[in-house]
What does this fold into?
Amino acid sequence: MNQKIFIPIVLGAIGLSHNAWALDTIIMCFIESTGGSTTECSDVNRVINCGTATYTDCNTCASGYTRSTETITISSTESYTIGTCTRTLSPIEPITPTCPDLCPENTWTDYGNTQQIRCNDELIIPACEYQCRAGYYGDGTTCTRCPSSGGVYGTSAAGSTAITSCYIPANSSMSDTTGTYTFTSNCYYSN
It folds into this structure.
């Protein structure tokens, strides 16, 4: 059913002189019963056209929208209560962080010949971390073997970053032209 109702509304008067008066504005409202729908509203009750403004009165909101009421005031003596529809936002699902395929575990694992790798899953976005294996030192992306002395390579703890972390372990033996030697304690490399 499509019907239109014409409602003229006088908004006020202004004084032109002390004896003459003129109307300031007349807003004409047309009310149309549509029974149709919009993107937001699945059941439109009526459409109110007042001057350049159009108001849609919604009975039922479309899926994903929430209905509320609002009063629109046309003049000091004329107002309408209409149903409006607002987009309902669903909460953001939390992302469960996962480690990259390259480093699926959060424990140090041998990787290549000189490195170890693990997943740091305490970061906002889990990432692979690298460190040097035992017997090497460096920043984890570049690892250098500990130097040797008399044919015996030094060792180091995994994750060592400086050459001074390298040492010849106690009870290691080495030989040269003057004889055989046994280290009685760990012998660290010094600069």
